[in-house]
Amino acid sequence: MSRLIIISNRVSAPKARADRxxxxxxxxxLSSALRETNGIWFGWSGNAVDEFSGEIATQVVDGVTTATVxxxxxxxxxxxxxxxxxxxWPLFHYRIDLAEFDRQFGSGYERxxxxxxxxxxxxxxxxxxxxxxxxxxxxxGQQLRSxxxxxxxxxxxxxxxxxxxxxxxxxxHRRLVQSMLAYDVIGFQTAEWLESFHHYxxxxxxxxxxxxxxxxxxxxxxxxxxxxxxxxxxxxxxxxETDDARVAxxxxxxxxxxxxxxxxxxRLDYSKGLAERFNGYRRFLEEHPDWxxxxxxxxxxxxxxxxxxxYAHIREELDELSGRINGEFAHVDWVPIRYVNQGYPRGGLxxxxxxxxxxxxxxxxxxxxxxxxxxxxxxxxADPGVLILSQFAGAAEQMRDAVLVNPYSRDEISxxxxxxxxxxxxxxxxxxxxxxxxxxxxxxxxxxxxFIDALTGSDMRGAAGVESASAES
Length: 473
Known about the structure:
Mean pLDDT: 92
Largest sheet: 10 strands, mixed
Number of domains: 2
CATH superfamily of the largest domain: Glycogen Phosphorylase B
Radius of gyration: 23 Å
Shape: globular
């Protein structure tokens, strides 16, 4: 097997074998591939320094080699907090109203991608497969080509790809997309995002889409496909056996005092639809007073990206909204919303998922949303909970047996909550069995193998001629 070089914005620090239960499923799967191929995981260390040196720090833990570099404060501000998270993230999640288009952000984004390329290129050997991850590093493939890297290079986008009318609002959008032609394989989470990409390259670049999904632009051929990511279901089974899981399960069951529990677990982000979720739950309490004192919503929302001002506004809004709902409906021995702004260990979350009667996974737009799959994996087959899933989550394409909901409609959220809480056991079992079968068959290892197989089988004709593909026309 060819050696694998994975490049991402941040590197998930490898874990010793005894500590892997605390590591995310994606990191477990990628670490497994790196271990099998004697590969390298390269990216930003997370540290900021006064001046970029390009010095690489390497570490080997349990057979996984990581290579990290520090970035300058200006790099972090312009590339990460700026272009990645204040320009691309909102735009790609259909929030053009929140996107900030700043020339300095774009300059920092290009500068860091060039620095990544210059730093990692000497590590790439003949025959290596290079796999670039996510929106932070879209132009990296082209930058690597300019450094003489002729290896097969793949790119996977973990977030949505926006429709044509949105991405054309991005200054120099053609330059960004043309840089993607340097990759041999481009992966998206769903057929919808793939179709949006096809639509763009056909209209803007004059591309031809061949029957096998190959995109042809002039002499350049690039394969693109949908590769929906999954979780490590086997690893999740092990999580459920941990002390963290058992304690969390017992705590939630004991504190519920016989009431039904609904759980939501989301990073504090405007794409997750948390305000809409709270308002939908409020409508449920208004419309179904017979459920007062009999149900509660546990919402776990750890803060994220505190340097981006938009996220402070989200937290203020949710603090106010949860307080208003609790003030209106609570009793001395019951509150309708338990709103928690802190993270939990993965084992603890697994235990909470297993104890809950339903999950509200209602993003306004998500590339995939693995919480939905983790909730399914955590359920007791004899008495499974019900997944209420946004129709706009990437996971909805695979998880049609969930209770699908329009997260923008508080009335529909209310109706779906009532449906889930009243669902008979036999129907809950039937839905869960089909969902669980999909979660286990199309897991993170299946995702990784599907993409790597596509990359190893890709046609590299035209790869040497993409150095100038970024010229804006």
